Amino acid sequence: xxxxxxxxxxxxxxxxxxxxxxxxxxxxxxxxxxxxxxxxxxxxxxxxxxxxxxxxxxxxxxxxxxxxxxxxxxxxxxxxxxxxxxxxxxxxxxxxxxxxxxxxxxxxxxxxxxxxxxxxxxxxxxxxxxxxxxxxxxxxxxxxxxxxxxxxxxxxxxxxxxxxxxxxxx
Length: 170
Known about the structure:
By secondary structure, the protein is mainly β. It has 2 helices and 6 strands; from the N terminus they run βαββαβββ. Strands 2-3-1-4-5-6 form a 6-stranded antiparallel β-sheet, with helices on one face. The longest helix is centred in the C-terminal third of the chain and has 9 residues, at about 115-120. The radius of gyration is 16 Å and the shape is globular. The two termini are about 15 Å apart.
């Protein structure tokens, strides 16, 4: 059967995020907002978990080159975690007449948390840095089906970290 991990996270995208990053997520767009770049084409032969099979554990150097909007809402279990999986990229206006894109994802992977962490960590440079020194921003969690406590996902202003991942005995 295998083991499953639920991944839930939400981020505000930096206003200066490169078009390639927005193109990688454009397939998840929901609702109105400014024009997005043409979505990266879907590739039925690509899935981020393919890179987990690499014996050296090396995640692709440029994950931006794929259509993440198709995969960040995946449900590989169907029964392990209650609720719906989905992904959305939505525009939110701010009170100053501008706005930002917000990415929200809930997915279930047939992988452990150690293998899934890179699916989120690569986005760090494109997340709006709301954190201050010593006060990271909570983004979400990874919940492994065989552990009671989730791994918490944080953004410290420059990188995405995973609280509890190193204590998880798999």
